[in-house]
Specification:
This protein has a five-stranded parallel sheet, sandwiched between helices. A five-stranded mixed sheet has the order 12-13-14-15-16. Helix 1 (6-16) packs across helix 2. The termini are far apart. The relative contact order is 0.09. By secondary structure, the protein is of the alpha/beta class.
Length: 547
Amino acid sequence: MPASSPLQKFLENVEQYPNEIYLRQPFNGQWTTWTWQQAGEETRRIAAALHALQLPQGSHIAILSKNCAHWMMADIAIMMAGCISVPIYPTLTASAIQPILEHSDSKAIFIGKLDDFSTQEAGIPPHLIRIGFDNYNRNERYNWNELLTEHEPLQKLYNWKADDLMTIIYTSGTTGKPKGVMHTAGNFDRVLAAATKEIHLPKHAALFSYLPLSHIAERMGVEMNSIYNVCVVSFAESVDSFSSNVQEIQPDVFFAVPRLWNKFREGILTKIPQKKLNLLLSIPLINSVIRKSIKKKLGLSKARHIYSASAPISVDVLKWFARLDIHVTQALGMTEDCVYAHFERYYDYRHGSVGKPFAGLLVKITEEGELRVKSPSNTLGYYKEPELTAELFDEEGYLRTGDICEYDHDGYLFVTGRLKDQFKTDKGKYISPAPIEMKLLANPDIEQCCVVGMAIPQPIALITLSEIGKAKTKQEIEESITASLAAINPDLESYERMAKAVMMKENWTLENGLLTPTLKVKRNQVEKIHQQFYPNWFEEKGKVIWE
């Protein structure tokens, strides 16, 4: 029988594996470790401190920090105190942080490992109790290490019921204002029990944490997975040390977002151009040496569970990695369904699909092609947003995913677009841009793309260049992009064919507000800036034009 809550499972691990390493945090290239017992001791002391700071059971407590050992210990301490966690993306600006803290009714905030807190601090309302992770030079009115010495471990821990609200996770805001998704202790419990069984998650595995813990994928795939399957979690120290950290860890489970998979491919091709790689992989004795070498440098020599999540990934990119014996699989989940969802299994996958549903997931596809799902782990709804919550579910209680999907004859689910991303050209034809964008992203010269076409006769592709692309001449880029359009357009319906590609002056980034914290393109923001230029670009001569 699974444990009834993540906290109960954590306490069982402390009792059964007290001296096994649980968390590994690098400081200046040296690893500091916590055993399960040490983590249990620290979290009990912090939980006692929360009560001493007049934060009773049910208080909402935020965490603003990049991934680190203290992020996870803060979350566990919040659980021990019977409080509700509100994770916040560490890359958000002050103007994005403030409305979340106010809307969520947060009473306190853990402030930790951050790149530039001075630009974020104004977003924290003055009445919040601030607790700093002083291990990362974050000093506040109250600090982690001081609280450890001032408080004895909390003995009477909160006993979580399955239907108790445990966390409010704010969405990354791809399509507008972030919404607070409410999840219970039982939701987390059911997902991990199902995932462990369905996709054969290994016990005592090595995990590597670097994608935001404030996102549902990392929260479930790393934090909750580590608690339910007694795994060791190692953290990246910085962007610069990422490669060396992951090479040292060689995790058993690894997932990345599509943009990072494209970056990994770009890094390999920068060192070994495609023609040379093709030659090396065609030589029987050398190909296995090359594959092993690349896998080890990526940190994937031991990984069996390798996932791409958060957005669709190009089939060509999946096949490219498969040639290196790196089998990247996909899943289709969302914050609202707590990823009780569709998964490819490492032993059962089909390129381009998002796999098959977990047992117990009820699924239907509407006439419009929208996937709707129902499971015991669906969200309770959006915090303080009854109207949005009502819109989220249909009359039968199924969650509206917004994904346009279809099953193939073997039961694999394929995503063909997003309802909200569809646009209509001035010919009156609806177009789903995502599948076309996936085809374009097979070209390693392309970093990001957005297929658009409101109020013009045919779609056009807005494109930013990768580092490989930026190293090429203008003529080489025009030839490369023209070749991609020529290869892709014949397979599209006549009204879907791209009239041309527009090369953007600058990349879309977190800093300029055109990427979400999970590195998805904010289509509505890109459109807001560029839509006025579509007619002129459409009329310009040439297949590839420059902004």
